[in-house]
Amino acid sequence: MPAVHFSFTLDAVLDSHIIRQLGTQPNLSALVRAALIAYFERPSHADLDVKLDTILEALRNVQVVKAGGCAPVQAEGSEPALARRGFESMKARFRKGATTD
Q1: Residue-range domain boundaries for the chain
Q2: DSSP for 40-82?
Q3: pLDDT tens digits, residue range 41-72?
Q4: Alpha-carbon distance values, 71 to 20, 30, 52, 67, 68 (Å)
Q5: Cα–chain center distance at 57
Q6: Is there a contact between 30 and 22 (Cβ–Cβ < 8 Å)?
Q7: C-alpha angle with apex 59: 54 to 60, nearest 5 degrees?
Q8: pTM to 2 decimals?
């Protein structure tokens, strides 16, 4: 198989933990290949926002089974404030992570 060579530099102080781990790996090419594939195939923060919104919408439509039948937990669009704050907090963490990638 034809090979393409890339090189990169690690900071001896800031990346010392990476350097130690790389030194123990028997097949660096396979390790770097797997890490890069996982990195490039991960969902974007926009994708995660859409998934969170989809989950929130599904939760709005959850029905609780009671002795008398099914009834919506709450009226459409009026999710509990605590749940909404939780989802907003999770979205903020994902967005913050996007700025550090």
Answers
A1: 45-100
A2: HHSPPHHHHHHHHHHHHHHHHT-EEEETTEEEESS-TT---HH
A3: 888 888 888 888 888 888 877 766 665 565 55
A4: 57, 53, 24, 10, 9
A5: 19
A6: no
A7: 100
A8: 0.45
Q: Given CA atoms 34, 40, 41, 47 in this order, what sign does their dihedral have?
A: positive
User: Is the CB of residue 38 less than 8 Å from the CB of residue 48?
Assistant: no
Contact 94, 49 (CB under 8 A): yes
The amino acid occupying position 59 is L
Contact 53, 90 (CB under 8 A): no
- Interacting residues of 66 by C-beta distance below 8 A, sequence separation 6+: none
Residue entry with tokens 């660096």: 28
